[in-house]
Amino acid sequence: MSRSKSSQHLEEKHMTEEKEYIFKRDFRSSMRLNFNHYLMREVVGYLTHPDLPITRPDLRVADIGTGTGIWACELATKLDKSARVDAFDISDAQYPAPAFRPETVHFYVHNGFEDYPAEFQGQYDIVHARFLMCSVDDSNVGLLLRGFLSLVKPGGHLQWFEPLPRSTKVVSSGPDTPNAASERLVQIWHKLDPLGKYSWVEDLKGLCERAGLEDVSQWRHGMPNHLRPLWAQSSLASTADVLPEVDMWSTTEGGLTAKFIEDLQQEIARGVAVDTPFQCVIGRKPDVAGSSMS
């Protein structure tokens, strides 16, 4: 796929966000994203689900909401030299320097709520997205999914990872171990309404089916016990990262304050963890033209 003026435009223009991104984009946030990438890969055991064919020559993959680009760059090292991975995000602030990018990975700046240029539409064997929940809610997820499906070629696949916030629970080393801060964090996960409505995450499989994807499957992944400290550290880093941005929770009593972070850290040290499982949903775009996705 050659680069036209429209793809050059994507690389140079930052578009207005549909929903404000609540996390930072500094080096600490990049470390957290990269940490989560390797942790998730360890838990699930794959970058692309084993059911997805990736050995065909000239494979085309799109990574949406690429962040630091770590998934796209690592996948490119596993694919045939003829493959191409295109990575998209609304900001290039966390992209790796060109010197550190595999030759077959190409980065673009694009708002996923806006139409993709024609040169990208219907070009990809696999479109991948993960952990977009904090940037998407019930009101605009349909628009985002429509953009995803516009990229998938007939017979191609969508792979999408998201957490399952309503399944969040406290895992404790003992019934008498203090866990008040962790229980409070669980309630925040259960009711994220101050940041938007997130029913779509719990119904991601159904959302994909209603959009016209076929052979839609969902896999739930929990954290193995020996990795719970790592997931707890990631959750702690996320909470600390978002703390300055979420004014409605930053109250003197019971909110996302610095004391709350300290309490969480102490509980983690005593063997308490907040466990949030996540899901992988994959589906195939029909081969026949004229489906609901066209």
Summarize the structure in words.
The protein has helices at residues 5-12, 27-44, 70-78, 141-151, 180-190, 199-202, 204-210, 228-242, 258-269; strands at residues 60-64, 84-89, 105-109, 124-130, 152-163, 169-172, 214-221, 272-275, 278-284. By secondary structure, it is of the alpha/beta class. The chain has a seven-stranded mixed β-sheet with strand order 3-2-1-4-5-9-7, with helices on both faces. Helix 8 (228-242) runs antiparallel to helix 9 (258-269). The radius of gyration is 19 Å and the shape is globular.
Key descriptive features of the protein:
294 residues, 9 strands, 32% helix, seven-stranded mixed sheet, single chain, two-stranded antiparallel sheet, alpha/beta
Mean pLDDT: 85
**Structural shape:** globular
Strand content: 15-25%
Return residue spans where pLDDT drops below 50 for at least 5 consecutive residues: 1-17, 247-254
Largest sheet: 7 strands, mixed
SS element count, helices: 9
Structural class: alpha/beta
Number of strands: 9
Report the span from N to C terminus.
21 Å
What portion of residues is helical?
25-40%
Question: Any idea what the radius of gyration is?
Answer: 19 Å
